[in-house]
């Protein structure tokens, strides 16, 4: 078989591995008191990353897989901001400036959604002020915001700059009118161009463009034309995400006609065409879906072995703990994961009336979890992992690792990966679309292929 046929023959539903174990494995009714204890046990001087989830949008994009509320009114957003401010203050009292003996430092702040750009400049400033009052934030911290270009205006750009925002992720998805109309997101190139111009006018020059391949009516020709337009904007980074079609989980995806979606072979062609175009424009591939200029700090992180992956995707910041604020936000500690409730009334009750965080689900690492996680993380970030070293450093039996290595045989025989005598697994760059599938060999919780109800989307 040729490379394309070989890769497609291995395609299967697998997690995106922004965490291991993946979020569907998280357990309900997890103890908020235990999560508080995790925070207390962080070593003094730990590096923190903060994530704020803004779960509101004025319109629902048909492809959206995020947790969000659709609203045409600002009142519920304003109410939510004040709850978020309280949650920040409460967590800060446990881990922030009010605990100087902890001396934790925030190295990264990320606003995601939903649409963080729904926040008025006043409310965005209010939240940034709350963060600075509650936590010690490094002067060089990356402060990033996911931006819907349709919401951008000079006043908002000015407020971002005044609050220290230094990285923007622009949700482009595509520039083809038919594609964007089919997913209920009308967003011409001129709108994105104007948003970039406004941000640069206020000194925010580091930004990435997020594209999605696999959307309805996309073709190689339309995709490459959209990428040609995108290159005119000269971003530092591109993200090229595969659309995860999971209509059994997200009802809005049922509005997308199945016959308009590219099949797996066409999705492969879309990714390869876009990737080749970006590489020819001197963007270096990072991980499975990012492309960056060599001057970008994400490239530096990859070269230095410090690139990491979490619920926001790839990051050049490797925190000791990631703390999530807001509905559905996920936190990560050395001991495991904790996810906030998605129920408005429960979130409000916790913030106003209880002393522990609004946790609904969580997961405590056990058994071989951390060794498997380290292997999967390295493969997802660097396409290579020192299996023997990782396994031995966690004190596990070599026989268990040998059983996992046997699962790699088909990929090794097809030239998609190489396993050295010293136990270093390296995935071929030409097998980049299969990294998630190969990494899944180390996933103890992956549902069987014949599962009646898949929990994940296909990899390619």
Topology diagram in text:
Elements: H1 3-10, E1 27-28, H2 32-40, E2 47-54, E3 56-57, E4 69-70, H3 75-95, E5 105-113, H4 121-134, E6 137-147, H5 154-162, E7 167-173, H6 177-182, H7 189-201, E8 207-213, H8 220-231, E9 237-242, H9 264-280, E10 284-286, E11 290-292, H10 297-304, E12 308-310, E13 313-315, E14 321-325, E15 330-333, E16 336-340, H11 344-353, E17 359-364, H12 369-382, E18 384-386, H13 387-393, H14 398-406, H15 409-413, E19 417-419, E20 424-427, H16 435-439
Parallel strand pairs: 2-5, 2-14, 3-4, 5-6, 6-7, 7-8, 8-9
Antiparallel strand pairs: 1-17, 9-11, 10-11, 12-13, 15-16, 16-17, 18-20, 19-20
Per CATH, the architecture of the largest domain is: Alpha-Beta Horseshoe
The first-to-last residue Cα distance is: 17 Å
CATH topology of the largest domain, what is it called?
pyruvate-formate lyase- activating enzyme
Q: How many domains comprise the coordinates?
A: 2
Number of helices: 16
Q: How large is the radius of gyration?
A: 22 Å
The biggest sheet amounts to: 9 strands, mixed
- What is the CATH H-level superfamily of the largest domain? tm_1862 like domain
Q: Identify the CATH class of the largest domain.
A: Alpha Beta
Give the strand tally.
20
Uncertain runs are: none
Q: Indicate the overall shape.
A: globular
Walk across the major sheet and give the strand order: 10-11-9-8-7-6-5-2-14
Mean pLDDT: 95
- Estimate what percentage of residues fall within beta strands: 15-25%
Helix content: 25-40%
Which class of secondary structure composition applies to the elements?
alpha/beta
């Amino acid at each position: 078989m040729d490379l394309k046929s070989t890769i497609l023959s291995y395609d299967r539903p697998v997690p995106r591995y922004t965490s291991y174990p993946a979020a569907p494995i998280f357990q309900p009714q997890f103890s908020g008191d235990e999560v508080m204890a995790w925070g207390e046990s962080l070593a003094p001087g730990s590096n923190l990353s903060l994530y704020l989830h803004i779960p509101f949008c004025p319109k629902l994009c048909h492809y959206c897989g995020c947790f969000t509320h659709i609203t045409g009114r600002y009142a519920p957003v304003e109410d939510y901001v004040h709850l978020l401010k309280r949650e920040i203050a409460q967590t800060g009292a446990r881990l922030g400036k009010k605990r100087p003996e902890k001396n934790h430092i925030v190295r990264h702040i990320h606003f995601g959604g939903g649409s963080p750009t729904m926040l008025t400049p006043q409310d965005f400033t209010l939240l940034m002020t709350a963060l600075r009052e509650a936590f010690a934030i490094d002067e060089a911290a990356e402060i990033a915001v996911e931006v819907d270009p349709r919401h951008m205006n000079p006043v908002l750009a000015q407020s971002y700059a005044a609050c220290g925002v230094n990285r923007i992720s622009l949700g482009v998805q595509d520039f083809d009118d038919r594609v964007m109309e089919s997913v209920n997101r009308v967003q011409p190139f001129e709108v994105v161009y104007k948003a970039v111009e406004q941000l640069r006018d206020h000194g925010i020059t580091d930004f990435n463009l997020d594209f999605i391949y696999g959307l309805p009516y996309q073709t190689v020709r339309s995709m490459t034309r959209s990428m040609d337009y995108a290159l005119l904007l000269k971003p530092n980074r591109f993200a090229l995400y595969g659309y995860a079609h999971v209509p059994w989980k997200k009802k809005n995806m049922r509005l997308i006609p199945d016959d308009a979606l590219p099949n797996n072979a066409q999705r492969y062609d879309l990714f390869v065409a876009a990737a080749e175009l970006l590489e020819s424009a001197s963007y270096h591939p990072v991980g499975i879906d990012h492309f960056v200029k060599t001057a970008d700090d994400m490239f530096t992180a990859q070269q230095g072995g410090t690139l990491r992956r979490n619920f926001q995707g790839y990051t050049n910041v490797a925190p000791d703990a990631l703390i999530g604020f807001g509905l559905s936000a996920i936190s990560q500690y050395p001991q495991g994961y904790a996810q906030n409730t998605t129920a408005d009334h429960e979130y409000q009750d916790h913030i106003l009336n209880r002393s522990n965080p609004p946790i609904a689900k969580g997961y405590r690492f056990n058994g071989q979890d951390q060794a498997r996680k380290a292997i999967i993380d390295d493969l997802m970030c660097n396409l290579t992992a020192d299996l023997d070293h990782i396994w031995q450093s966690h004190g596990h039996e070599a026989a268990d690792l040998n059983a996992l290595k046997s699962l790699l045989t088909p990929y090794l025989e097809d030239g998609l990966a190489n396993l050295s005598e010293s136990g270093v697994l390296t995935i071929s760059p030409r097998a980049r679309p299969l990294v998630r599938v190969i990494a899944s060999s180390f996933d103890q919780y992956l549902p069987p292929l014949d599962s009646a109800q898949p929990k994940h989307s296909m990899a390619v």
